[in-house]
Each structure stands twice: as structure tokens, then as C-alpha cells.
Amino acid sequence: MALVNGSIQELIELSDRGFQYGDGLFETIAIKKGIPCFFERHLERLHNSCLKLQIPTPCSKLLNSETFSLAKDLDNAILKIIVTRGTGGRGYRQPEAIKPNRILSIHPFPSYATSYKEQGVTARFCETRLGLSPSLSGIKHLNRLEQVLARAEWSDINIQEGIMQDLNGHIIEGTMTNLFYVKNNMIFTSPLLYSGVAGIMRGIIMELAIAHGYSLTVRDYKEYDLLTADEAFLCNSIIGIWPINSINTTRFGIGMMTRKLQYLLSEYEQKDIINNS
Amino acid sequence: MALVNGSIQELIELSDRGFQYGDGLFETIAIKKGIPCFFERHLERLHNSCLKLQIPTPCSKLLNSETFSLAKDLDNAILKIIVTRGTGGRGYRQPEAIKPNRILSIHPFPSYATSYKEQGVTARFCETRLGLSPSLSGIKHLNRLEQVLARAEWSDINIQEGIMQDLNGHIIEGTMTNLFYVKNNMIFTSPLLYSGVAGIMRGIIMELAIAHGYSLTVRDYKEYDLLTADEAFLCNSIIGIWPINSINTTRFGIGMMTRKLQYLLSEYEQKDIINNS
Question: Which CATH class, in words, describes the domain spanning B115-276?
Fold first, then answer.
């Protein structure tokens, strides 16, 4: 089920710049009990990403009404919103009047094992490096070939995520997640200045950590820092927080900080759902 | 006019991975007198790009017959071939059986002034830097947001091309062209190891230069090297060679080497058209 500019449709014009150049951005939103979770944050990031890519933001009232009407009867689902620069222009040159296309599509919630949240997941390091591209870093844009190549590196169903480094060997994120680690009760994550997606869930976790007085450091770090951590965890808008129990041959315990943040997040999500009901 | 997997169609599924992630690649081919110019080279690059992106190459007999049947009545046109990883998979993860989609579309030949080839064009430096991404460099893939952002920097119709540097200040290419410069009768161009598209026309010019005994150096270079050059020129499969007559406030003469290469290229192109007629 998908809406293209408000009309039910499963197709898009070949000339759409999203198809021709990856010229657009997206949001992936969890729907629980008919409510799109953290919707205002997703709308805000979508607006900021549009600004950075110089695409006019689609009317937020329209996005709001289409989202809530698609979500209302769904218990557990995923909503993906794509905004592209529309059609037209000549080659890379954008048209003088940009008419963005907005595409909202509903997808089944993935059937992840409940053990992932409880006993943690297994991760590996990817060979594919993230490029350094400050003009695009942080944005959830449609240029995702590096993630596709990284995710194609393994097919072992016992490995749930691949961890990506940038060209300088800084650890940035998972293929579909952001990454945190904990050492001596201090929480660390990458600044994402040159690569990576600044996830909504990453932002929420950072806010929760600060609000509860935990030490949070945003800095570049490398393999050694991660592998000698006390705890490590992955996050995104769909999975929430998954503790990491091993990366290659290194095993991690699931520590108190990860459990506290899982608890705080679950509490915060419940409030969000109630506020939007 | 477009063919999607052989059928006339102007639409593509929303679920195509080209639209979702820019998960694919393309070729832009000049059609002259019913002949797709340098078609075998384009097919070869398409095949190599598919290998690098782990997309099965579409059958070259099919590509061949579809291309020649679309081209046969066209005097001057552009053929764009897009190959995507098709639909399916979960998120970035590719499906176990990849069924690529091939899209051939015909576009009018741009109405560039003949003076561009004769008296040269005006270029500017772009602010947008090309990211460093060795896993994708050289490939004409569908992740083209940097080029779109760079091309959006100017609207002055008297400027024909923008020159892009990478993060390290190395000059890489134009937004839609490759770039060469000439100093003391020696020809220089960028190696494209970390960014850029290895253009078909760039390859032909390099071969012609070597075959005629000219000195060709492929190396990193910066703004100073370009601005103190004797000659500079741009190339791609559609424009051939455009001399550069100025970059920002620096003016260039149109020197003998550029003229020789234009002549050699035109001769070589005529042979290619006759061989394929």
C-alpha cells in the first residue's frame, strides 16, 4: 500500500529524480497501535534534510493527515516516507520550479526474534568503508549504495548487523543502525561529521542519557575503543535498542547502562504513543 | 520513449531498488545517424560496473538489439541505459536471486551552441566537494546527490560547467564532464581513485593521446596546477571535447593540443559510426 502525492499507486515516473539520481531523502517510522512513533521528530528531520538538499518541504499538514490515515488501523507496521526533487531539470541541473514528490508506503513490521532485545545480537565488521562526504553526512538521503554493498558482505542469518568504519578507520554506525558503546559508565558515540545518518533513535537516546545525568561523549573512535568497551548497543527507529553480545570473536556482557537506556526508551515511547492517541 | 525490460513504459515500481536506494548504474550514449556511438565501450563499462556493484549484467544481446532498434531512425539523440538491482530484499539487504531491471530511454540531444566546441566554455569552481569513497569511485552509479548539489550552485547561463574538488582539494572533474589540462605539451588528468566517474570519452582521449605519442600523466593535482595550465578542456560522451576559455577570472587560450585531440576524436568517432553502420 502506497500513496504517491496522495493517490494510491505502486509506480513512479522513470523521470523522477529519485530514480535517476537518488535525488531525495526518506524517513522510516514505526507504527504501533495505530500511532506513528516519534512522528514530530521524523517530520522535523525531514524538514531539515529538505533544507540541506534544497528540496521544498512537502506541506506538513498533508504529511500529517496522510500518515495518520494510513496508520490508524495498523497495530505493528512500518511507514516509509520518501521525498524526491520531483521530475524535470536537465541532467543534474534541477528545474527552476521544484515540485517534490512525496511517497508514503506501508510495510510489515520485521519479525525480529525477541531475544535480540533481551540477549543481544551478533555483529561483524564490514569491509566496505563509508566514504567521507560532509555535504551529505547526517542526512537520510537516497544515495545508499555503500550500505547495500556492506549488507551484501554476509548472508549468515546468525549475524544481525554489520559495523561500518570510514576511510580513516573511525567507527561510524551499523548498516541500518547507529552505534553506542559504554566504558566505565560513560556513553560514547560517533559525531557523524563526515559520514553516517543522524538517526532519530540516536537523538532520543542522547537526550535521555543527558536528561538522566549520564556521561555522554560524542567523539571519533576506532576498533580498539569499541572492542575494549564494557557494553555496546545498536539502535534505530524500528528496533529501538539491541544490545551487542559479540563482534567477530569479542564477546560483550549486557550491562546496566544498556538495560537502563532500554527501560528509559520504552517508558518514553509509551508516553509518546499516549500523547498522540 | 522508454523500454523497461523490453516493454514500452514510462513508470517503474516504487519498490525498485534504484528508486529506494540509488541501487544501480547508468550509461549515457550519443546517437548519431542511427548509430549508438562507442556502444561496445559503454557495454563493457556497464558490465564492469555491474561486477563492482554485484548486479548480474543484463544479457548483452538484449541490450544490443533494444539499443539498435531504438536508435535506428534517430539522427541526433541521447540514449540512457539504467540497470538497477531490481526489487526485493529486506532493507539494504539484496534479494537472494537478483533480477536486475534494465531501462532504456531516449532523450533529445541538448541544443549546445556550436561556439562551445570552437571558442570554448566558461567554468567555475564549485563549493560542493566530492566525497572520498573508493568503493564507488569510477563507477557511473545512481548515487548522484553531490553532482546535483554542485549543479544547483549556479544559474548563470553564461557558465557551462562547474569544476569539483574532493575533500583534499584535489581537482577531480566537472559536474557532468571529465577534465584534462595541458602544460608544456604534456596532458594531465585525475586518477579518480577516491571519487569521480571514469568516463568513456576520458578513456578514448587517453588512448588517442598515448597512441599519438603525446605525454599523458594521470596524477592528483590542485587548483594552482589547473589555473597555471596552458590549455584545459572538458569531455563526455555527449559533448565530445569542449575547450575551457575561462575558470572564474583566469582565461585560457585554446591551444594546439586541444585542437589536435578534437580532430583525432572526430576522426575516431567517424570510424566508429562507419564500422557500426
Answer: alpha beta
